[in-house]
Amino acid sequence: MARSDLTRPDTAAPAVALFSYGTLRLPGVQLDTFGRLLSGEPDVLPGFTTDYLEIGDARVAGVSGRDVHPIVRRTGNHLDKVVGVLLWVTEAELEAADEYEVEQYNRVSVTLGSGRDAWVYVAR
Known about the structure:
124 residues; alpha+beta; Hypothetical upf0131 protein ytfp; 3-stranded antiparallel beta sheet; globular; disordered N terminus
């Protein structure tokens, strides 16, 4: 991602854009994973659709309070879109999100409906 994509528009502090459509939006998951609550901006992920995944990892299911999580899959169809939130995290928090997500998720760089580049967890 370009340097301009790594800076929050309202501050000079470096940050990483992370698009969330699922459990990373939950306050309990944010507190457990990042140690703080995150603010976000509504956005969409074009060319993807939402599916669901049964979570076999007891820790992750315990943190989220759910044993089924959403997971997105690329369709390439411009009419498909996933609604979510653009979160601003630090590099260390992004690594913590990597630890939270189970192996069926893969972090990739995407361009959101707003035109911003962000990381998102998609089906492997």
